[in-house]
């Protein structure tokens, strides 16, 4: 039976994790028999030209994990080195130097300043020199992304890597982000990349409210590598379809000792406002709308209403955006240590962050602790450990009241701020039973607490200069708790006499891995590296949620989460899932004279998400590289030899899988609910079939061809990288709609294919390099075009409603031959200036309810295009009205240094993308009780303003008709040019640092979200607040998104 096989796989996986641990212990016990004669090498590393010592340079025995860092005097001592081995000296921003060990015991080195092409890059399970890469891999060191003093990693990554789109889903403190690498490869399966922290893969999630990068301090990061092409991500198999983000945290090093203290404080303000009508203008507009719409025929009633409003205290009138928004604050305090001896190295960091949002009572707090240790148990045996603990709290009504910022904009300014739901529906301050958003933010008590413990241990045994074996085990334990209380001042609380929610989430992620590797250079021309990996992963999750209502009226604020205080308790919701995966990887890299490069890999994955017959997937990859600059014919041209440091051509192909679907999608599943009993009056728990079985589903497969060029010139001061790719996903895991007669809504099947094509270019250079003044800059452009190649037997699909429209009027179009990310609706032609009757279709089963009327459409009503020419406007007239895909995206990052002053600036841009502004309906709906956009209202159609472009008050009775289907009025140009960060750093001069015997003292002033040039009328064009399937293919949807802030931040950093 399928369930039995599933349990067998899980048990087998857990058993194999235990086996990995036993292998590690075996390696530890038997390590002593492989020792050999070694010696210590000492020396000093200096910069060529200035002869200044180089602090923090890495000295490593080539092909091993044996390495140290130069101390504050540029000195180093590295032990256990054998004659004939090669020492590699590397430093960010300097060219790598290699020295062969002979009979000497001291090696002094001079290093050239320049752009490092021999930089070591983490590529998954191994590291490679950047110059030897054959795939498309981009990397950033901490020195590169920390220059603007970011408080979050997503803030540090924006616009810095070609082909990678980084967006905050909104401006909420600790809110979610989206990282999209080379477009969307899937429709209803997951589209988020895999995040790997120190080798441990995090569970993949498409949750728009969560950010995997918000749980780690940027100061704890050593480097970030992003694997973009499939030949690079194929080593992660089923998890690598959407790219891989590799995060390496800081490690201690022998020969150094550094204590760092950092304090940060900042103030945040709303970056962009939307002009709304004030109280007086709103009242005049409201009364004019009521008269022109025909609702108020009696002038006496109009005058009576006016007198009632005006005779109240004008000081009680409110402008709710000013009332509900505030100046936010950001605080971050960190203490860290890095150092060690030749036997024990350690890196430890404590971080405490507190951010108050720009909306009242919203915030994010985080405590982060991490310690990395490396202990040399024997000359050739090393134990590496990594422990971390993270605690965060998200607070504020925003997290559950998703439309609250639209309510803040549109709530009637005539209503006093303390008005509650019970009082709010009188004739004087009639609001149509809308909640007071100020009371929502003030009264709703919401907190989301999360705790994550992470620990892993790894044993590395270097058998000799060529062979190594290592094994490790890791555990990640996330736990969460959500508490919410809605009082009777809010409608939901009023309807339930107080409503409380308590929910918990817990998980257990376990990983065991064994790796064996071989590295050797034959005859100084053939370099071969082979690695074999066996890996087992299991993930368990449990959730619980419970609602309580009917609270005693005299219940104090304390103790509202006591279940006994609620007189009515709903049946709890409980879920449990367990996922297992077994994997094997074989990787080989070959180089001939550093000139011809070859890479090949094969990964096999077995996932419990599929039935036993379709459980295993095999994902190959291969890549070729040709360093043309190493050819003799190239070197014979003197100008080329002198000015071109590296010219490399790259070609790659690979396949990866995607299993980001529900855990038991292949099986028939049951759910429980309260169902009415056949006999009697009570409701009893009952089981029902919730999903149709499909044991035939299997891996979604993505294959990609990539061609690239790397060019480094003028002593590595100019760097150019170009990539062209074609990526095709076939056998997509698509949720297909079923007929209602089936009794099910959807079923997952392997149907259809999608193609992404594009290019990426990055140009970086050192523009000026003088002793007292340096200037470098990097610019990148990328473009991606997607196309639906097949949808099985269908030619098109309609999915979801990312903005409010009538049921049955899905507005996301997925059509063969078209790109992903199309918005579907009626095309608006203008505003009617007279009465028309061409909308008077007779209601029928084929006609939507909102046109099933014989009434004529009045003046001021929007005019929609009859695209099919049948003489009426209905659902069959919908067309493509928006494309959220940009024509190109890019970024510019520049750094200047003059003596002890540094300036850093980051820009990003997007061109040609549309945004679905789901707020338009409320902001421009003239004639209803909400406040209006000042821009919309002043340009609305009136008899005395016949050229108005927005709906007039005469259309008040037709507002529901206008917005029952999506239309082009809510589509706006989302192109932008944004300056993300501007940072000025004052760094203490070196001579003073030496006199004070400290390493660094710096004061940094940073502005985040400096400016944004855009035609978009909302808060910010970088937004992604849609839901469900639309988040994967419609990144540009704005539905009451939390506004972005502009922050002014001061930071003091002290290193000793």
UniProtKB/TrEMBL annotation:
<keyword id="KW-0472">Membrane</keyword>
<feature type="domain" description="TonB-dependent receptor plug">
    <location>
        <begin position="130"/>
        <end position="244"/>
    </location>
</feature>
<dbReference type="InterPro" id="IPR037066">
    <property type="entry name" value="Plug_dom_sf"/>
</dbReference>
<dbReference type="InterPro" id="IPR036942">
    <property type="entry name" value="Beta-barrel_TonB_sf"/>
</dbReference>
<protein>
    <submittedName>
        <fullName>TonB-dependent receptor</fullName>
    </submittedName>
</protein>
<dbReference type="InterPro" id="IPR039426">
    <property type="entry name" value="TonB-dep_rcpt-like"/>
</dbReference>
<keyword id="KW-0998">Cell outer membrane</keyword>
<dbReference type="GO" id="GO:0009279">
    <property type="term" value="C:cell outer membrane"/>
</dbReference>
<dbReference type="InterPro" id="IPR023996">
    <property type="entry name" value="TonB-dep_OMP_SusC/RagA"/>
</dbReference>
<keyword id="KW-0813">Transport</keyword>
<keyword id="KW-1134">Transmembrane beta strand</keyword>
<keyword id="KW-0675">Receptor</keyword>
<dbReference type="Pfam" id="PF07715">
    <property type="entry name" value="Plug"/>
</dbReference>
<keyword id="KW-0812">Transmembrane</keyword>
<dbReference type="InterPro" id="IPR008969">
    <property type="entry name" value="CarboxyPept-like_regulatory"/>
</dbReference>
<dbReference type="InterPro" id="IPR023997">
    <property type="entry name" value="TonB-dep_OMP_SusC/RagA_CS"/>
</dbReference>
<dbReference type="InterPro" id="IPR012910">
    <property type="entry name" value="Plug_dom"/>
</dbReference>
<comment type="similarity">
    <text>Belongs to the TonB-dependent receptor family.</text>
</comment>
<dbReference type="Pfam" id="PF13715">
    <property type="entry name" value="CarbopepD_reg_2"/>
</dbReference>
């Amino acid at each position: 039976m399928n369930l039995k096989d599933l349990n067998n796989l899980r048990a087998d996986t857990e058993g194999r994790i235990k086996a990995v641990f036993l292998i590690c212990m075996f390696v530890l016990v038997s390590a002593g028999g492989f020792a050999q004669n070694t010696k210590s090498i000492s020396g000093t590393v200096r910069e060529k030209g200035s002869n200044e010592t180089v602090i923090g340079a890495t000295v490593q025995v080539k092909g091993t994990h044996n390495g140290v860092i130069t101390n504050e005097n540029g000195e180093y001592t590295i032990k256990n080195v054998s004659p004939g081995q090669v020492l590699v000296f590397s430093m960010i921003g300097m060219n790598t130097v290699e020295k062969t060990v002979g009979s000497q015991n001291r090696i002094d080195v001079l290093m050239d300043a320049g752009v490092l092409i021999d930089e070591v890059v983490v590529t998954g399970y191994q590291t490679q020199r950047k110059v030897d890469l054959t795939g498309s891999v981009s990397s950033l060191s901490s020195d590169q992304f920390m220059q603007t003093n970011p408080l979050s990693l997503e803030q540090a990554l924006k616009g810095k890597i070609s082909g990678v789109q980084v967006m905050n889903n909104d401006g909420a403190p600790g809110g979610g982000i989206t990282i999209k690498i080379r477009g969307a490869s899937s429709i209803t399966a997951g589209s988020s990349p895999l995040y790997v922290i120190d080798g441990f893969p995090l569970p993949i999630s498409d949750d728009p409210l969560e950010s995997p990068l918000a749980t780690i301090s940027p100061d704890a990061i050593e480097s970030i590598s992003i694997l973009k092409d499939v030949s690079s991500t194929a080593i992660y198999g089923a998890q690598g379809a959407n790219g891989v983000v590799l995060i390496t945290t800081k490690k201690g090093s022998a020969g150094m000792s550094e204590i760092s203290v950092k304090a940060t404080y900042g103030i945040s303000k709303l970056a962009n406002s939307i002009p709304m009508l004030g109280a007086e203008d709103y009242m005049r507009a409201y009364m004019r709308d009521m008269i022109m719409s025909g609702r108020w025929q009696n002038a006496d009633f109009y005058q009576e209403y006016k007198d009632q409003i005006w005779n109240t205290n004008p000081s009680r009138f409110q402008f709710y955006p000013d009332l509900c928004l505030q100046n936010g604050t950001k605080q971050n305090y960190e203490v860290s240590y890095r150092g060690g001896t030749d036997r024990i190295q350690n890196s430890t960091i404590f971080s405490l962050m507190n951010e108050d949002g720009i909306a009242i009572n919203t915030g994010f707090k985080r405590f982060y602790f991490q310690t990395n240790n490396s202990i040399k148990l024997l000359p050739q045996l090393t134990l590496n450990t990594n422990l971390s603990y993270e605690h965060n709290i998200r607070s504020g009504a925003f997290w559950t009241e998703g439309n609250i910022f639209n309510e803040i904009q549109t709530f009637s300014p005539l209503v006093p701020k303390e008005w509650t739901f019970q009082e709010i529906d009188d004739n004087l301050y009639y609001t149509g039973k809308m909640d007071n958003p100020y009371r929502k933010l003030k009264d709703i008590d919401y907190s989301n607490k999360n705790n994550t413990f992470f620990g892993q241990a790894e044993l590395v045994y270097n058998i000799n200069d060529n062979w190594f074996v290592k094994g490790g085990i890791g555990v990640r334990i996330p736990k969460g708790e959500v508490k919410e209380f809605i009082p009777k001042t809010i409608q939901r609380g009023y309807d339930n006499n107080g409503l409380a929610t308590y929910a918990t989430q817990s998980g257990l992620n376990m990983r065991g891995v064994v790796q064996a590797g071989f590295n050797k250079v034959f005859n100084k021309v053939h370099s071969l590296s082979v690695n074999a990996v066996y890996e087992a992963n299991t993930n368990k999750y449990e959730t619980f949620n419970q609602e309580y209502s009917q609270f005693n009226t005299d219940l104090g604020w304390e103790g509202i989460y006591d279940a006994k205080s609620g007189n009515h308790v709903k049946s709890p919701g409980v879920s449990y899932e367990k996922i297992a995966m077994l994997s094997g990887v074989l990787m080989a890299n070959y180089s001939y004279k550093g000139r011809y490069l070859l890479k090949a890999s094969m990964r096999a994955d077995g996932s419990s998400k599929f039935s036993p017959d379709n459980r295993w997937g095999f994902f190959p990859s291969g890549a070729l590289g040709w360093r043309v600059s190493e050819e003799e014919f190239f070197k014979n041209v003197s100008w080329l030899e002198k000015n071109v440091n590296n010219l490399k051509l790259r070609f790659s192909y690979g396949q990866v899988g995607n299993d980001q679907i529900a855990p038991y999608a292949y099986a028939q599943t049951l759910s429980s609910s309260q169902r009415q009993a056949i006999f009697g009056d009570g409701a009893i728990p009952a089981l029902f079939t919730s999903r149709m079985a499909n044991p035939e589903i299997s891996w979604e497969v993505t294959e990609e061809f990539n061609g690239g060029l790397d060019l480094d010139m003028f002593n590595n001061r100019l760097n150019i990288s170009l990539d062209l790719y074609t990526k095709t996903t076939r056998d997509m895991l698509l949720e297909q709609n079923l007929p209602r007669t089936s009794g099910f809504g959807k079923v997952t099947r392997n149907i259809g294919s999608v193609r992404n094509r594009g290019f990426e270019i990055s140009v970086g250079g050192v523009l000026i390099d003088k002793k007292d003044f340096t200037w470098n800059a990097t610019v990148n452009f990328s473009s991606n075009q997607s196309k639906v190649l097949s949808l099985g037997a269908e030619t098109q699909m309609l999915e979801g409603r990312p903005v409010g429209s009538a049921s049955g009027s899905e507005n996301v179009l997925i059509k063969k031959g078209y790109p992903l990310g199309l918005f579907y609706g009626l095309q608006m032609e203008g505003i009617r200036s007279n009465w028309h009757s061409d909308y008077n279709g007779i209601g029928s089963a084929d006609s939507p309810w909102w046109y099933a009327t014989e009434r004529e459409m009045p003046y001021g009503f929007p005019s929609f295009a009859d695209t099919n020419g049948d003489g009426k406007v209905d659902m069959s007239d919908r067309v493509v009205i928006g494309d959220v895909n940009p024509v190109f995206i890019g970024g510019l990052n520049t750094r200047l240094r003059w003596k002890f002053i540094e300036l850093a600036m980051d820009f990003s841009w997007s061109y040609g993308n549309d945004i679905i502004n789901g707020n338009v309906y409320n902001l421009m709906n003239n004639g209803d009780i909400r406040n209006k956009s000042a821009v919309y209202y002043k340009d609305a159609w009136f008899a005395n303003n016949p050229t108005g472009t927005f709906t007039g008050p005469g259309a008040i009775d037709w507002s529901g008709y206008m917005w029952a289907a999506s239309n082009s009025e809510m589509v706006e140009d989302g192109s932008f040019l944004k300056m993300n960060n501007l940072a000025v750093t004052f760094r203490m001069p070196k001579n003073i640092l030496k006199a004070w015997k400290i390493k660094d003292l710096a004061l940094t002033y940073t502005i985040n979200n400096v400016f944004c040039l855009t035609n978009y009328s909302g808060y910010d064009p970088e937004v992604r607040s849609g839901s469900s399937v639309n988040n994967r293919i419609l990144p540009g949807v704005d539905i009451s998104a939390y506004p972005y802030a502009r922050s002014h931040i001061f930071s003091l950093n002290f290193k000793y």
